């Protein structure tokens, strides 16, 4: 395979693409993006709706999207952030987002204090919105001791929310954007949970490029093309994503993610349990 092979590079956009409607909306956005963006590398103008460290380290990656916590804890040597989406849902402010703390609708839980020795669902252990922000919220209450009796890793926000809705778990932190998208697709599911508040806000899930090719990228140009694509895409797809546009981000804006971990460590609560 040569460098001129159009399949050499790909774009991955899987963090908020867990339904057919969402994937169609993202594909529509990028179809317009492809019209404006002149890449320094040939690429296949089809999205991969996938995530994970392995994908972000794939030598064929052109642009991907990841979570802020693995960006800083696992991928800092591999990729650099370009921009983050601005999505208009409760719990978000510009490029910053929080998580919704959800409990079973019919439970008596009113605060994190009521969850002591309960069961928590955290998406997965390297999730900023599922684990890191919840750990930060619980750390002051923990007295450096295990707070939950059990911590589950269902593997996605949808599965974590389902655990809570079915009464199998007492609390979960659900990315506010994911919660809104889940509510659109499965309103009967979200009706079975209720919010007891929001976590702190951190910088949103970044689109990233590999360090190996970053010298040939103009981050402002990529962001401008994504914003132009946002304006040009049909209203129904933009509204489906609640998408306002994109804002440039830099690596230091994700230091706040590690500051939450530092806060938990100083409280003696590095491991959420």
Folded structure, characterized:
The chain has 273 residues and is of the alpha/beta class. It contains 10 helices and 14 strands. The protein has helices spanning 20-36, 53-56, 68-73, 128-142, 157-165, 176-185, 187-190, 219-232, 235-241, 255-266; strands at 9-12, 43-48, 61-65, 79-87, 92-93, 96-97, 99-104, 119-121, 150-152, 171-175, 193-198, 202-203, 207-210, 243-248. A 6-stranded mixed beta sheet has the order 2-1-3-13-4-14. Strands 9-8-10-7-11 form a 5-stranded mixed beta sheet. Helix 1 crosses helix 9.
Quick overview:
The chain has 273 residues and is an alpha/beta fold.
**Strand arrangement in the largest pleated sheet:** 2-1-3-13-4-14
The top level CATH class name of the largest domain: Alpha Beta
CATH architecture field of the largest domain: 3-Layer(aba) Sandwich
Fourth-level CATH superfamily of the largest domain:
Periplasmic binding protein-like II
Task: Tally the beta strands.
Answer: 14
Order of helices and strands: EHEHEHEEEEEHEHEHHEEEHHEH
**Strand-residue fraction?**
15-25%
Write out key terms for the chains shown.
273 residues, alpha/beta, D-Maltodextrin-Binding Protein, domain 2, six-stranded mixed β-sheet, five-stranded mixed β-sheet, 10 helices, 14 strands, 23% strand, disordered N terminus
Question: What's the topology here?
Answer:
Blueprint: E1 9-12, H1 20-36, E2 43-48, H2 53-56, E3 61-65, H3 68-73, E4 79-87, E5 92-93, E6 96-97, E7 99-104, E8 119-121, H4 128-142, E9 150-152, H5 157-165, E10 171-175, H6 176-185, H7 187-190, E11 193-198, E12 202-203, E13 207-210, H8 219-232, H9 235-241, E14 243-248, H10 255-266
Helix pairs in contact: 1-8, 1-9, 4-10
